[in-house]
Amino acid sequence: MPLNIDIQQILLHFLNFAILFTGLYIILYKPVKDFMKKRQDHYEEMDEKAKKDVEDAEKLKKEYEERLAKADAEIQDKKNKYEAELGNIRKDRIGKAEAEAEKIIGDARETAEREKKRIIESADKEAKDIIADAADKLVNASLSENFDAFLDTAEGGK
Fold it and tell me: Model's pTM, two decimal places?
């Protein structure tokens, strides 16, 4: 053996090294590597789940925005419909009120006309009564004066 190197010793060192390497690989490296792989998979899974949740949330947001737009359009349609209906009701009521006002005014005119005729007839009757009383007084006064004059004349002529 040259240089005092024993092949058997080298092979034993290689065997020890291989056993040590295999033992350390099995005991330390493989569990750490598996742990890191599980951790990486877990975080990738969480990331995928978060992305999926964000996509779902965006879909829901878009759906709700569409529903809100539809609801706004429906509300506007109903509002327009009810405003038109309210306008028709207003026109109808205004028409009825105007008709009723015309009827009331017509009735008031008829009543005023009747009252006017009654007042004129009453005033005419009062005027006739006043004239008749005045004529009666005038005739009576004139007769009484004439009768007194006649009596005076008749007595004077005796």
Answer: 0.41
